[in-house]
Amino acid sequence: MILDVKYSIEKDADTYVNFIFNFKSFKHGRDDIQATLLAKLEPTLQDIIKNASNDTDAHEKISGYLEAKYKEDPTVIDESIKKLKTAWDKVGKNIINSLEFLYGKSFPFDTVGAYITTNNIFPYNYEQRYFFVNYKFLNSQLATAKHELNHFMFYRYYPHLKEKLSKEYFELLKESLSFFSNPDQEGKPNEQPLRELFLSKIWSNLDEAVTAGVEYLTKIKS
């Protein structure tokens, strides 16, 4: 699989608008997520976000801030792109193979996009086949890639579960399956019962674990 690594100020700004100025996703127990993410930003950027009047205003001002930062030293982002491309050429096949082994199915896409972000949260867009990775740390980028590509496999091979579960529980099950691909990651607070379930035995295959997860979520849903 080809990982198309790139940077877009517009898309980078989107992450701030959609997950710090607002939070347009399920929090999965992370009640203070916006405040936590905001506190990690530079004071100037914090002020821009706090004082923005709406999404459009926030996006315009954040984009201006990011553009100025990029122009100060474009090599920071450019080097991040170069390093991730080089690393993916070396280990990307192993990551894909591990996911194919986990799911017992082939990875469904020939190319996936990876956008560099200066933010501390890494959303994705399955329909448009891209995800975000942090600009600073290569190990984190590769771990994020494996995590998000796990999500893409789940969406591809288990879409029927959305009808059985609520959308929120479908998304929660998807997140919890990172237990198998990224066991070193702590996971979101609401994932913990599912992670404990997955830890409780050795599963013959992922389908068995997913079925158990669905049964658990169905019970707490009713």
| Poorly predicted runs of 5 or more residues | none
Largest sheet: 4 strands, mixed
Structural domains: how many: 2
Q: Choose one word for the global shape.
A: globular
Structural class: alpha/beta
Gyration radius (Cα, Å) is: 18 Å
The number of helical runs is 11
Binned, the helix content reads 55-70%
Strand fraction: 5-15%
Mean pLDDT: 97
Spatial arrangement of strands, main beta sheet? 1-2-4-3
Distance linking N and C termini: 41 Å
Total E-strand runs: 4
* H and E string: EHHHHHEEEHHHHHH
Structure description:
- The chain folds into two domains: 2-147, no CATH class; 158-221, no CATH class.
- Helix content is 62%, strand content 9%.
- The protein contains eleven helices and four strands.
- It has helices at 9-21, 33-39, 43-51, 55-72, 75-103, 138-157, 161-164, 167-176, 178-181, 192-199, 206-221; strands spanning 2-7, 111-117, 124-125, 130-134.
- A four-stranded mixed β-sheet has the order 1-2-4-3, sandwiched between helices.
- The protein is globular.
Short description:
The protein has helices spanning 9-21, 33-39, 43-51, 55-72, 75-103, 138-157, 161-164, 167-176, 178-181, 192-199, 206-221; strands at residues 2-7, 111-117, 124-125, 130-134. The chain has 222 residues and is of the alpha/beta class.
